[in-house]
Input
Amino acid sequence: MNIGIVRFPGSNCEVDVWEAWKVLGQVPKMLWHQETSVRGYDLIVLPGGFSYGDYLRTGAIARFSPIMEDVIRFAKEGGMVLGICNGFQILTECGLLPGALLRNRDLHFLCQPQYLRAERTDLAFTSLYQKGEVIQIPINHGEGNYAIDDAGLKELEENGQVVFRYVDASGEVNEAGNPNGSRHNIAGIVNREGNVLGMMPHPERVVEEIVGGTDGQRLFLSLVQAWERRMQYGA
Amino acid sequence: MLKAKVTVTLKKSILDPQGSAVEKALKSMGYPVDEVRIGKYMEVTLPEAARGNATEMMHEICRKLLSNPVIEDYRFELEDKE
Amino acid sequence: MLKAKVTVTLKKSILDPQGSAVEKALKSMGYPVDEVRIGKYMEVTLPEAARGNATEMMHEICRKLLSNPVIEDYRFELEDKE
Amino acid sequence: MEPRIWREMGLTDEEYERVVQLMGREPNELEVGIFGVMWSEHCSYKTSKPVLRRFPTEGPQVLQGPGENAGIVDIGDGLAVVFKMESHNHPSALEPYQGAATGVGGILRDVFTMGARPIAVLDPLRFGPLEEENTRRLVRGVVAGIGGYGNSIGIPTVAGDVYFHESYRGNPLVNAMAVGLLEHRHIAKGVASGVGNPVMVVGARTGRDGIHGATFASVELSEESEAKRSAVQVGDPFMEKLLMEACLELIQSGAIVGIQDMGAAGLTSSSCEMASRGNSGIEMDLSLVPRRETGMTPYEIMLSESQERMLVVPKAGREQEVEEVFHRWGLEAVVVGKVTADGMLRLLEEGKVVAEIPAKALTDEAPVYHRPTREPEYYARLKEQPLDGIKAAKPYGEILLDLLGSPNLASKSWVYRQYDHQVGTNTVVTPGGDAAVLRVRGTQKGLGMTTDCNARYVYLDPYVGGALAVVEAAQNLVCVGAKPLAITDCLNFGNPEKPEIFWQFEQACAGIAEACRVLETPVTGGNVSLYNETNGEAIYPTPTIGMVGLVENLEQVVRNRFAEPGEEIFLLGEVSGSLAGSEYLALFDGMEAGTLPPLDLKEIKQRLDFMLKLIVAGLVQSAHDVTEGGLAVALAEMAGKCGVRVSIALESAYELAELILLFGERLGRILFTVKPENAAKVQALAEQTGVLVTRLGETGGDTVAISVNGELKLEAAISECQRRSEETLPKALN
Ligand SMILES: Nc1ncnc2c1ncn2[C@@H]1O[C@H](COP(=O)(O)OP(=O)(O)O)[C@@H](O)[C@H]1O
Ligand SMILES: [Mg+2]
Output
């Protein structure tokens, strides 16, 4: 599988994503933000961090990196794109995903384990999770408060575009389980076509027991499985 | 030279956690304030050569980069810079 | 009601990493800009009752909470709110 | 020259005389300014040097001791750990966010300038009383600033500590420690050598930031500091991230001779220190230094403390390589001068010489003061203050909950949740553990790290308290299964010109030195922060210790929470402690007094070795040291998944014996649990080694229950303990 991880100046989780893939048997390539083509890749990952310092607005400047033009083309042609944290912020800034990410409700940066509920498991990203399953994947952000207008929210829900929701330990969607004030406890969404996923939690941080858990593994492995199937049966 | 003074504010419908925090703080300090909303202020200095289409260009800059139309509004004024 | 429009800017000699980053981005997008400086913009709504000493109070609020005089300058204007 | 001028630059009349002597002529104003800043306490250590010389600095593991930008310690496999701690107290008092942020930025540069990739930040913090609004403002700002810088640059902040005390009102302490990893072959140093090699300024442009920061750090805070506020700098973590990547790439390319970050006193200290270490001279034309502002004078350029800059000496002919690396990262790199043979720091402006000083006159020839010391009046008085009148203020269970919820003991998760403590995906033990543990990729090994200092102990008895700070750091490391390797320190004290303060300083350092000797953890570097006073009132002496240890096999890492019910719980060390200097006494009686328990470092060393042996043998399920709040608090802290039932036999009929047993403090004690089938083995080993180990009870239930002589004396629900511990900081700070 050809995986490309885009490295913007200020990205800081690109190596972690790379190491996570390696643990799971894949060797991705690093793509510098100044490259202009992502042709030939099966998956593009926009990693976490603070691209361009996250100055002005998170992801606002990164979106204008030379490589993003081709990432947008790639996504529109059905290529798989995964945006984690800052990557999610970039995806909303460039319009591949709806909404925006605001400062956390209590204004603090938050790094903590987080319960999520998998809402969609028919996607290439999530097929190995059980629908409604509660998993633990840490969050690590200051601006992960998902905002969208009422009409947009309604559309998201009606199309089933919400992939992960913040929940409490018992799997309930409620205020107590919502770390940052996101509307409808949204932690991750997918585009209508199902090929672009953005999520605030960091699956790459939980692929090894020794550093905190393994609930993130299946996200990556789902993608490998989807790719293998595609290879086997054609697109 | 020209200076564009840009103000970017959150749309009315968007919650402003920072504003609310400042509002609460001011209230607890005993100041009678009703509401606080927080936005950004930017000064963009333009070269003389840009004077011709400065307004148009600033709209473009604001739409594309300085604000996110999903959540924010912008306005600006142009003035001569000493 | 009254509205105070507050602008907080970094003092001239203070480094503005945000502004520089935006400036570089605009330049690399092909816009002819000379400099960008970024500050904060705040709207504080005051009740009618505060009209009497609004100016004084706003100075106090700006000094104490809305700006840090060590690195920032502030200015504000008061206007009637519809 | 008018005396006013050198005095304003921070030189005394005698020091000025010495300058004239060393120069062989009258210096000009720029030269005086350079002497002023290099001979400031902050840069020259003129007061502390004679005392610091007594620290043990050698050991088979030490690859680089004090004197460089950071110390280096071998961890085997061709790898080494690089670490250093520094203070940013004064800037943080004025602008908490930026002060703390640039503190992190500065200490990270110290580590990557050695060629090491930083892997962790630690942040010991001290503030005034939590009840006060100003404290809260400072806490919020400082914590946001540390996170703002560390999170953004992508280096996890993995441990630290937070204490609140009167004495820090108006003078908070913001110390920051950075730890990095390095392959031996990539060690870089801050030297300028090789006549004719170019000298380059790389990274951010120079502005008028923080001019006088170093002199500023060497005076007391007062109303006047208001006027010197330009001394505050703004950090740019994004720039530093790029700078870090570029520097590491450059160092590994082998293109350079030396590199040093520009910290306090910016271009001045970096250039003359590099020249001095290399026994050479440096000549620079200041008009070549890239600037952010127009009209800067040579003085301003030399003293600017603009952040995110480095001075680099490449091998002649390879300057273009340097430029290329930096340009790729979007940074500037400019040749501003060259290395010379004459040992002079020669500064030019547009080709014209504006200053010419022997580099060593600024460094090695700086004055050294042997300040007088005097035992402070309070010392004997507090030591002898009787603690007989003390009574248990409440039922023991309530005391426990109050202690757990007191600001000093309460959970600091409000703080460390704001820090990315996982980036790098190497953090095996996250904040909340006794020490943080990070894995060393590609090996079985891990690095343990911790910062510690109970300033109340140091105040009451600087010698013992200083030693105890080292002991606490070591016991924290041992509790996670790490063998203590070496320390760095940040010595925060008041005005050393007061004999009582200097006495504290000298005593504390002597205690630290002795503990380091016995525990075999040499000092590899550190930082002295003096003049921590507000309106004449000194902070409590706070020599923060940062210690690094080695975990040989990550599978052996032990946590500080009971793993499961049915484990046997043991205490290593004395069963009872003392109320002297205890949190109990401070909280319930508003008293900080008493004689600290006697300190036997050799015995403690024996216990730590024993503990480590048990852990390496795989016999330990969980471990936690007994510190502030004593035995009851330590037990409650270990309870999480399950509680504990403890039963202690107490012979003493002294009426306070129970209180002291439960809440008395005494370092050198560790609680640990073992599986029942291993209990006999552990006890046999203890007997064999001759260390004191007592079986206290077993884990289980959902309360912390302590019986004395068969009678249940204290019981508290775990959920309640946790609630009280967790709620304090959020309540005060949100
Ligand atoms: N400022 C801080 N930054 C990061 N971690 C912190 C901070 N303060 C406390 N912690 C963490 O909280 C835990 C408890 O701190 P402390 O009570 O000082 O530990 P100990 O008594 O074991 O030395 C430790 O894991 C420590 O690293
Ligand atoms: Mg401690």
